[in-house]
Amino acid sequence: MDKTDLRNDMYIKTPNVHSTAFIADGAKVIGDVILNKNSSIWYNTVVRADINSIVIGERSNIQDNSVIHLENDQGVIVGNDVTVGHNVILHGCKVGDGVLVGMGAVIMNGVDIGKGSVIAAGAVIKQNMVIPKHSLVVGVPGKIVKEHSIEVYDQNVKWAEKYVKLANIHRQHNQ
Question: What is the reported pTM?
Fold first, then answer.
């Protein structure tokens, strides 16, 4: 059967949300989505996996007003300890562990972002770009401008840890 045939509700699945994951009020998590341990989806974000799958790794956070969607043959995989800033679009791409995606960035189909990289705010990463680990990518279109040290990866992981704590605070106030 063709996955592009949206009349076939066989491809509309129920999200698999770990008991420690946080989904903020107003966020929409739809379809074949896996939210792993201590991941968080923030206010008014849309995670829509109606024609493929989306996996959000442990301790990763997708901040307010972001959109995650996919291509027919390309799902979305967000690794562990990833921070995705406000108003980001992730579309049919892979985001490695410990990546920081700045506010308003757009990541297109087929992009593969290596571990510990930083995507600058407002950057547009063109289709099928492969970004090596520990890279800094800036601009429109996105260009790799330097390689980071391991300390940047460690800092990115600390940002993700902060959002685990913040999600627990929001969860307590929304009960």
Answer: 0.92
